[in-house]
TrEMBL record:
Biased composition (Gly residues): 192-201
Biased composition (Polar residues): 1-10
Composition bias type Basic residues, residue spans: 162-172
Domain U1-type intervals: 80-114
Segments for region (Disordered): 1-56, 134-201
InterPro entries in alphabetical order: Matrin/U1-like-C_Znf_C2H2, Snu23, Znf_C2H2_sf, Znf_C2H2_type
Signal peptide: none
Keyword flag Zinc: yes
Stated name of the protein: U1-type domain-containing protein
SMART domains recorded: ZnF_U1 (SM00451)
Length: 201
């Protein structure tokens, strides 16, 4: 025997009904507010950023290498542990992350540069080749310079090692002097520390 079909008389009024026009109007109002906010933030025409360029300074990663530093929580950012970026006013904890930061988008934008590289023209490339050729001919760009620089670095490293050894020796001497305790001869004799010399008098 077949069951009667009761779906025709089911009341579905408890379901929520959405008014499409109302939600479209809300979306339009939200978009207008965002546009107004963007216009008020920009305060003028969009900024044209300069293309990327080479650094004209040496990145200092090892000046504080091997040095001890007292870190306090109330110290200014520039004196805290790590690498301080004065452009973005932040501290990065290690050298790899510091390099990532100074090569990154946020830092370059703070410097007024976009992440695009300027396309070199044919004349610029030819000029660069000419400059390199002149440097090679005049001897300012030779293997000898490279050898001299390597030798100079090795000498500086040896000098630093020598200074470290001297400082260690001085510290050992100071420590030895501090450890020498002045002992009263009567107390030393009582304790059996008479000396290690000969017993003959």
């Amino acid at each position: 025997m077949a069951q009667p079909n009761n779906t025709a008389g089911v009341d579905n009024t408890f379901r929520r009904k959405f008014d499409r026009e109302e939600y479209l109007q809300r979306a339009r109002e939200r978009e207008e507010k965002e546009l107004e906010g963007r216009k008020s933030k920009s305060k003028g025409p969009p900024v044209q950023r300069k293309p990327l360029k080479h650094r004209d300074y040496e990145v200092d990663l090892d000046s504080r290498l091997g040095k001890t530093q007292v870190v306090t929580p109330i110290a200014p950012l520039s004196q805290q542990a790590g690498y301080f970026c004065s452009v973005c006013e932040c501290v990065v904890k290690d050298s790899a992350n510091y390099l990532d930061h100074i090569n990154g988008k946020k830092h370059q934008r703070a410097l007024g540069m976009s992440m695009r590289v300027e396309r070199a023209s044919l004349e610029q490339v030819q000029q660069r080749f000419e400059n390199l050729k002149k440097r090679k001919e005049t001897g300012t760009f030779t293997e000898q310079d490279l050898d001299e620089r390597i030798l100079k670095q090795q000498q500086e490293e040896e000098e630093r090692k020598r200074q470290r050894r001297e400082r260690k020796k001085e510290k050992k001497k100071e420590k030895a002097v501090e450890e020498e305790i002045e002992v009263d001869p009567d107390v030393a004799a009582m304790m059996g520390f008479g000396g290690f010399g000969s017993s003959k008098k």
